[in-house]
Amino acid sequence: MRNQLGLTILMIAGAAIAGCQPSAAGPPGGQLISDKQTVSIYELAGLLGLRVSESTSTHVTLKNSANTVMIFTFTGGQVYLNTKSLATVGRIGRSGGKIHVSKALVSQIRSAMQTAPPAIVRPRSLSGCVVVDAGHGGRDPGATSCLGFYEKTVNLQVARKVASLLRQKGLKVVMTRDNDTFIELQERAAIANRYSADLFVSIHADSFASSSRRGFTMYVARSASWSSRRAANAIARSMAKTGLNSWGTRKADFRVLVHTRGPAVLIELGYLSNYTEARLLRDSSFQNRLAQAIANGITEFLG
Length: 303
Ligand SMILES: [Zn+2]
What we know:
This protein is of the alpha/beta class. The chain is 36% helix and 24% strand. The strands form 3 sheets. Strands 10-9-11-14-12-13 form a 6-stranded mixed sheet, sandwiched between helices.
């Protein structure tokens, strides 16, 4: 309502000035623009970082979040910036259906424009507890990669990186193991339950008879809650950005998933039976990317 009223007043003022005064005489504070170079209204808007929000037979309005420019498009019409008179528009040209104004307006308007206030970005404060479970360990090596290293080693390396990234986000992180120890599956789930974890993430790497199979897989229990599935999908979406093939989210009753009361997912990072993926999973910088993707998926789920 206030805006509409303001607009009407300005239009009357613009028209009145145009009708009553010669084009050479601007209002107090305004300057006459006389520059042979011209720009179309759309070019002017582009040069000023404004958009054309209104265009009528008498005026145009250009806007961004901090500025409103009104230009009365007849000889002697006024240019208003944020309701203040800035200049007379000078000569108006029309070509190809487009209105052209003096290029000098660009610098004149720009120098008087308000800087757009920076967008307020509120840092999301994350809270919650994540239990990160590095699969296997100790006497249980898990799968053996085609390059000879064990799954338990990669699982721990990636789990540590994920844990560290989540801690940096302010989350409480508990690792079921932080070294090469054997822990019963039941105990892993019990740890998550003891801490009432907001998410239990078990990290594994896959193996298959055919060495050509590649890609990561997310697992949730067959009776998984909506939260578990949401977490799995968020992590899968994020992990797909690393370039690994995605097998999506599958259902399987792994014991660690079945015995965890809260949301629980299991990640198979990729296939150790595939030469390319075995090399990638062993590579520390790829592990960083993978861990970052997993952590991003987790924070998206918890955010
Ligand atoms: Zn495993």
